[in-house]
Amino acid sequence: MQIAHTSDLGGDALAAVRSLMVDAFGDQFTEDDWRHCLGGMHALLWEDGELIGHACVTQRRLIYDGEAVRTGYVEGLAVRGDRRRQGHGRTLMSAIDRIVRGG
Questions:
Q1: H or E element that contains 28
Q2: Distance of alpha carbon 28 from alpha carbon 83, whole angstroms
Q3: Burial class (CB in 10 A: 0-12, 13-18, 19+), 30
Q4: 69 and 61 in contact (C-beta within 8 Å)?
Q5: Which end of the chain is more exposed for a tag (fewer CB within 10 A), N or C?
Q6: Residue 8, pLDDT above cutoff 80
Q7: Is the separation of the CB atoms in 1 and 18 below 8 Å?
Q8: How far is CA 81 from CA 26, 38, 39, 85, 88, in A?
Q9: Strand 2-5's sheet: what is its strand order?
Q10: Can you list the pairs that 32-37 forms with residues at least 24 positions away whose Cβ atoms lie under 8 Å?
Q11: What is the pTM of this model?
């Protein structure tokens, strides 16, 4: 498992994430979806040098009743098709939970 901010990921890792997203969601994965995946903390699951899963959490600020509230959105959660139903999504979401909780 690799945990990194978007700014710390190299071009190859970002290309692998985008490719995984396109493979997982096809034409439904838009440029807006890709932009939502950037600027946050990523959990990347690698196996034999290939990306098999990804999730990220991006911080957002909401205004509620005149007050700013910090929140995070989970974006780009996907597991490679041949590796689904093996607990990898749960592993990725556990990593995202640790990021959100600051641990």
A1: none
A2: 21
A3: exposed
A4: yes
A5: C
A6: yes
A7: no
A8: 12, 23, 26, 9, 11
A9: 2-5, 41-47, 50-64, 67-79
A10: 33/75, 33/76, 36/73, 36/75, 36/76, 37/6, 37/75, 37/76
A11: 0.89
